């Protein structure tokens, strides 16, 4: 926030556009009408709508069990306040690890179908087949009707001499065909290892 800036307006802007909101839980936070009542309520509404992720972090011992965020996983592990850890660096490491996992999951959830397809093709090119399949499955999850670009399919027609000749027709395979095609392209050794 800049000097001379309206604090309430600045505070309102950021929580309304953030994808990740960290709530720092302490007795002071719980006692603040604005923090506990206004900011947290808005953050939880956005979390429940799937627009952002809210991560509560327990700084100091406080009664939080009846709070609106009590259904969320608190950090650090076991909802043990940071000030109660014998080594606070371990508490911060625990928090950092979990926030990192949350960010990775959040970034994955923000990817589009096209993003997942690009990732899948890149991984396939690197011969990382299982990861490629997972990426293609994510793309299909986002669009179950997805299919690859049109592919030619043989159709017979009769020419002027009365003989049948194949003609080209385009069709769009189903999402199941896409999955099967991607699995089929995997090297046979990978397929055999899965069956053992």
Write a structural description.
The protein is an alpha+beta fold and 196 residues long. The chain contains eight helices and four strands, in the order H-E-H-H-E-H-H-H-E-E-H-H. The strands form two sheets. It has a two-stranded parallel sheet. Strand 3 and strand 4 form a beta hairpin. The longest helix has 23 residues. The C terminus is likely disordered.
Sheet with most strands: 2 strands, parallel
Structural class, judged by helices and strands? alpha+beta
- Quaternary structure: single chain
Q: C-alpha Rg, in Å? A: 26 Å
Distance between the termini: 59 Å
| Shape assignment | globular
State the domain count: 2
Order of helices and strands: HEHHEHHHEEHH
Strand order of the largest sheet: 1-2
Topology:
Elements: H1 7-17, E1 20-25, H2 27-31, H3 33-48, E2 53-58, H4 88-110, H5 113-125, H6 129-142, E3 151-158, E4 164-171, H7 175-184, H8 188-195
Parallel strand pairs: 1-2
Antiparallel strand pairs: 3-4
Helix pairs in contact: 1-3, 5-6, 6-7
Provide a quick synopsis of the model.
With about 200 residues, the protein is α+β, with helices and mostly antiparallel strands. It is built from eight helices and four strands, in the order H-E-H-H-E-H-H-H-E-E-H-H.
